[in-house]
Amino acid sequence: MTIRPLRFGIWALVHGSRAAYQDPEEPYDASWERNRDLVVAAEALGYDSTLIAQHTINPHQEDLDQLEAWSAAAALAALTSRIEIIAAIKPYLYHPVVLAKLALGIENISRGRFAINLVNAWNRPEFDKAGIGFAEHDARYAYGREWIAVVSRLMQGERLTYKGEHFDVRDYVLRPGSLYRPRPLIYVGGESEPARALVADHGDVWFINGQPLDDVAGLIADVAARPRATVPLRFGLSAFVIARQTRAEAEAAYQRLLDLSKKDAPMKAIQKQNTDPKAVMMQTMLKSARVGSNGGTAAGLVGSYDEVAARIQGFHAAGIELFMLQFQPFEAEMERFAKEIIPRVRAQSPAGDKLAHPAGSR
Predict the structure, then answer these.
(1) pLDDT in tens, 294-345
(2) d(CA 125, CA 94)
(3) How many domains does the chain have?
């Protein structure tokens, strides 16, 4: 397996803090202004990518603000010049023809820096309350498989006629196509068997939720061994980082966030009630105490600067190319990581392994 150069990205704060909502060091703020400033700052600090999660209503507490992903992605595409912009998408919310057109528009606004992240949903009220309905887990993946087959071909500029169980597309072509490469990249999340099969067939990059190195290596080995008709699959990992000069300082900072996160127990109970129990992401997150979403600190990036840099290298050796990172307080810790960890990782990397943004590569 070819291991590509490391990249680092950040989760946009589309529904506020990632670890604890009642943190005096990071008051709740999911505004466009904060996210704009956050991503612009991340680009200036050298980060390579940002992921904008998609929800129509806040998945933790419905009276809290929730940034809309796709309008924000379009705006960020116009305000930045280098950073990759990934917008998540839940297939049931957009017809594939409409979504492909939106994706190509942002692709060209960004000059070839846009990607979609296909996720098949876990938050039931988002769909039920809209009258869309929340299909059974494997049925959602079957729908998503057909959906992405249409989207991918339209994003490539193909004149498409497609008849399936869910879609009937006739002699459809979108112009302009991508002016910078064959099409936007396709990231896929999810770790169930249907998710693994889908990413092997249709994805460019598989997003894995934060978890220990051995577990991540096993997931990569399973999916990397599956037949593909295109270039080899690439891999990304979500992780919450707490890095300090010493391990003791990092552990103290972790304990502070863990204690604060316990105050969010009522909203976590609501989230659990609203979540599809078959969603592997949630099963993974229940394995151990941790802070952050999508596995959070379960990836083990808590420790001294040198320890965190070494653990990142371990994941990279296993095949992880892109680390999609969370912090709290986000802005200060994002800057700390850029100044303390990225130089250490670069120093440990083999000769020629540059930490550079390959937005136009496939």
Answers:
(1) 999 999 999 999 999 999 999 999 999 999 999 999 999 999 999 999 999 9
(2) 17
(3) 1
